[in-house]
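Colleagues,

Please find the record for the two-part complex below.
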Amino acid sequence: MEQIESLLKRPALYCNIDGVWELGMGALGMGYFVLIWLQTHSSVNSIWHSMWTLFVYVGILSAGLYFGTKFIKTRITYPRTGFVSYRKSSAVWVFIIAFLVAALVALSAYTFSKRPMGAATPAFLIASLVFVSMYVYRVVLAAHWKWIVAGILTISAVIVAFLPASVLASIAGHSAPPGFAQIGGAFLLLCFAWSTISLISGGISLYIYVRHTPSPGSETD
Amino acid sequence: MNHQIQSIAELDRIIHEPGRLMIITLLYSVDQADFLYLQYETGMNKGTLSSHISRLEQAEYIHVEKTFRGKVPQTLLRLTRMGRKSFERYRKNLREAL
């Protein structure tokens, strides 16, 4: 019975077998980091504050992600280990559990910490840990070495949350609204850190996948 | 105990074969998958996998669609409504039997 339950989870874990999900998330995060960085570190009259630039940028980013992941899947993954299309099932309960666990961890960190924290820090930690829980559910269960990546993601979130307010405010730039400089800087820094980690982890997965799977062949061979 | 024995007796013989059970279980969680994916996950050779697929197709548990991915032939497999219900019944009976 356990084998059947384990086999039922295999297709979901197959989604990131080539690291494409992580590469996509990393590229998306890096794309938004660059956009927000440019917006917060440029003058209000620059093109980065124009609505049209935003539309064009997000359009190019989305198209790049869509066609990039599709390219890897159709040229590398499907010819090597096969094609899968997924059912539209709701996994709401998974996210609820992830949220509750993350909230508990963040609350503990908040309660036992001796350092003074800003009002937004617990919320920031909760949101970060929810993401890490999703990462564990989606990626780590398929490749156990990714626990290291999950650990690095968690540590980086905690480090960013406890950085001095002045450092975070300087990262947020001059155009951050008053009162949001600290959380804005924390978000921007974490966005950069996680995107970089995700891109590296996805790249390693893709390398391992290509190296350890047979080269493409027809099913009629 | 009688109930357990009855559950064992009611197990679907078509699904109960390990190779076919693997195929049905994998297809249960997806919309559709191709032959190559099933071969990758189950580790079966092409002949064995083909024969199991034929048996499941005869029982109308799976729908097989022959198509092309570019110039390469591709066999897409999907669980039918009957196959899905049979697998759910099989799991229920197996759980009761164990």
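The longest strand of chain B covers residues 62-69.

Comments are welcome before we finalize the supplementary table.
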